[in-house]
Design goal:
five-stranded antiparallel β-sheet, disordered N terminus, globular, alpha+beta
Amino acid sequence: MALAARLIRGLPGTLIQSIGKNSFSSASAATAAKLQELALEENCILVNEHDRPLGNASKRDCHRVDPKGHIRLHRAFSVFLFNSKGEMLLQRRSTHKITFPDCYTNACCSHPLYDIEGEREELNALGIRRAAQRRLNYELGIPLSQVRPENFHFLTRIHYADQGDGVWGEHEIDYILFLQKDVDLKPNESEVSEIRYIRRDDLDRQISGLEAPLTPWFRLILANRLKLWWDNLHRLRKYENLEEIERF
């Protein structure tokens, strides 16, 4: 079953898809590690605390914690994906990820890239939406046609920082995107080791039962906004905050 995904039925309304770690060959592991290393050369968009662009720096430079504990502020996004039943997709990051490996998080978390001109477009957060479409396709195998930029609901921006393991950390203006749609999933095992849909009424039990930690951005959003937003999936416009950058 090398390179194949194993499908497991969990609790009612919950689908768990786990990529068997024992089936991940040494050659595949080496390829995954190489891909993660190459990704560090991609250029992120540097911003100030007001989200105004300041240029670019490699993903490596944007995530290294300097000797004084500082991390360069850059632009990012977090996608929260729900199916037509209102269940939320949770992913477990691959052990090969350089930042926050083997942690649970929302459906997709990444960055618009400076070198892709269309992802620098700021009007209506179009560049962010394009980046989200690209990464959902890369990480979760969702066809591009199923996650068009106009399908995303841009809710707000969150400024947060976390020093991670003291070597690799995060300091981001994080654009929060919601998407409710049934999609086809084919996870990229170099990025994702597990995906599961969870119900709103089972959220606390599911989170408390996870066998790995949460990413800091997901933990922050879960503690401050996620339950409110999830309870209002069909009237999210009421909870938009597009002018301010939220800091918890």
